[in-house]
Specification:
- This protein has helices spanning 2-27, 29-39, 43-51, 53-86, 92-98, 107-118, 123-132, 143-152, 155-168, 172-179, 184-195, 197-213, 216-220, 226-233, 238-263, 286-318, 327-357, 361-369, 372-375, 378-392, 401-425, 429-437, 442-471, 474-479, 487-496, 500-527.
- The two termini are 34 Å apart.
- The protein is globular, with a radius of gyration of 25 Å.
- The chain has 26 helices and no strands.
- The longest helix is centred in the first third of the chain and has 34 residues, at 53-86.
Length: 528
């Protein structure tokens, strides 16, 4: 019986390897192809292109935007996390939820709202022209517009990470500091923030990677950074576009290494003592704290949603736009997001089983290689598939739904791997062994025991992929079949032509569906 059981384990591992190895090779394909394509550029020509003034300005703008957004996200997220966990802020649980909601708004929807409010044909320009005859406002386009729109919808990464850190660290040192006469701000600066260093670093890394890979907001704001420059280079020189993409990948890796360095080599663990945290009384600072939270809530959520609601009313009530025009892109968006979520969910299962149940070094490497696609910006993944599709599969796969779904799997599979792996790790192997010793086959044990137990995390991972796919712009823009109109493409095309009323309905529907998807993600976390 024991020999048969071991043979069963070996045969299962071989089957998982037979599925996982080709899948890992496909997931690594974009980076490999970009390296091959960029190597076709002559070394002297590559050096001249990378060192010329316009390329250096692109690098400088990208670094400036990453630094500015990351710094501003910290200035917003860290105080907000401290107020909602360590003080007597009234309604702090409600504020903790509300300050997270901007995460469901895509940056290009926020950029659309900003342009719709302050742009050349925006709300304020119309009001000022009616009241004071002012026909032109200062331009919102460029660095300031890109910085503002990306910051508002990425700061929750820092807020959530720091808040998790504050809820997990032992408050004993903070209490000791306050009993020694130190003020709350001194304690925060000297005691709390050093303990939060890894959590701040993790949040800043997510914000920096989001900023570096963002395409929609910078494209709408006409700010020429890496992603927009690569997109514009597609119609000029594909080899130089690949070269620029590799530079972007290098910067992504450097950001991850910088994050590791920021954490340092210190030990941040503490002895977990289950004690009630003594909240810091705000006293006369209560009003200022409430105004701070209201200000963030207003500019990050109420403001954009109000602009969208205004243009929705202006378009569908005043101008008589037909609402049914949004049904087709809504159906297309849901269809492609559901297919991507299902494909990522199915692909995650063999990789996760190989990593958790057979944790050899080679198996671990295969699974972790799948995470590389998440570090690649969407425009880089799209670029690699455009190269191959246009050259080798122009009549079969290029600009078809299967290629678009494949691009989504490359980009977002890690989002399904994380929750699925966490759920499988909570399923004891002894339960599966009991089923096998009772005569059940591996297939019956998987369908009858393992999958039902890991379902909450698996479903949460697919819901997260659904949410992200719904908002993805560059992959959809470059790889979607001709005439395949999604909510993201509809918003992009309408705002590019300054038809803000036409973009309002798809933007509002996208935000609502994204919020519902987030509910499934949080529900899966609660179940786990």
């Amino acid at each position: 019986m024991r020999v048969s059981y071991r043979k069963n384990l070996v045969s299962t591992e071989k089957l998982l390897l037979a599925v996982s190895i080709p899948l890992a090779v496909l997931l690594l394909f974009p980076l490999g192809y970009l390296v091959i394509r960029a190597s076709e550029v002559d070394s002297q020509a590559a050096a001249n292109y990378l060192l010329r003034g316009s390329t250096l300005r692109i690098i400088g703008r990208s670094l400036l935007l990453v630094f500015s957004v990351s710094l501003t996200a910290c200035l917003i997220g860290i105080p907000a996390a401290w107020l909602t966990t360590r003080t007597t802020l009234k309604g702090r649980d409600w504020w903790a939820v509300v300050l997270t909601l901007p995460l469901v708004i895509p940056s290009y929807v926020g950029a659309f709202a900003l342009i719709g409010a302050f742009g050349p044909r925006g709300i304020f320009q119309g009001w000022l022209e009616t009241l004071f005859g002012i026909e032109r406002l200062p331009s919102i386009y460029g660095f300031w517009g890109a910085w503002f729109s990306v910051t508002l919808f990425s700061y929750p990464y820092v807020f959530l990470s720091v808040r998790a850190g504050l809820r997990g660290i032992d408050p004993a040192l903070e209490e000791a500091s306050r009993t020694l006469g130190k003020s709350a701000l001194e304690t925060l600066w000297r005691i709390t923030l050093p303990q939060l260093r890894p959590f701040i670093s993790a949040g800043v890394l997510l914000v920096a990677l989001y900023t570096l890979s963002d395409f929609g907001a910078v494209a709408m704001m006409q700010y020429n950074v890496f992603t927009r420059a690569i997109y514009l280079q597609l119609g000029v020189n594909l080899n130089f576009a690949a070269l620029l993409s590799l530079v972007l990948v290098v910067f992504t890796v450097l950001l991850m290494l910088f994050s590791i360095w920021m954490e340092g080599r210190g030990q941040y663990y503490t002895e977990h003592v289950h004690r009630k945290i003594r909240l810091i009384p705000l006293g006369h600072w209560q009003v200022a704290a409430q105004l701070y939270c209201i200000f963030i809530f207003g500019i990050a959520l109420v403001g954009p949603m109000s602009v969208i609601a205004y243009w929705l009313y202006n378009g569908y009530v005043v101008q008589g736009e037909e609402l049914h025009n949004i049904l087709r892109p809504l159906q297309s968006s849901i269809r492609v997001a559901a297919l991507a979520a299902g494909a990522c969910g199915i692909s995650a299962i063999p990789l996760v089983f190989l990593q958790v149940r057979y944790p050899r070094f080679f198996n671990q490497w295969i699974t972790r290689s799948a995470y590389l696609g998440y570090a690649l910006p969407g425009v880089v993944v799209a670029l690699a598939l455009v190269f191959v599709g246009a050259r080798y599969f122009s009549t079969t796969l290029y600009q078809t739904l299967p290629m678009l779904i494949f691009a989504y799997v490359i980009r977002f599979l890690p989002q399904a791997l994380g929750p699925t792996r966490a759920s499988l790790m909570q399923v004891s192997p002894q339960i599966e062994e009991c089923g096998l010793t009772l005569g059940k086959s591996r297939r019956k044990v998987f369908w009858g025991i393992t999958l039902p137990l890991m379902r909450p995390g698996w479903v949460a991972g697919m819901a997260l992929v659904f949410l992200t796919t719904l908002k993805e712009l560059p992959l959809t823009l470059l790889l979607a079949p001709i005439g395949y109109d999604t909510l993201a493409v509809r918003i992009w095309s309408a705002t590019a032509e300054s038809f803000y009323a036409r973009a309002a309905a798809p933007a509002l529907v996208m935000v609502i569906i994204s919020a519902l998807s987030l509910v499934f993600v949080l529900d899966g976390d609660d179940r786990r």
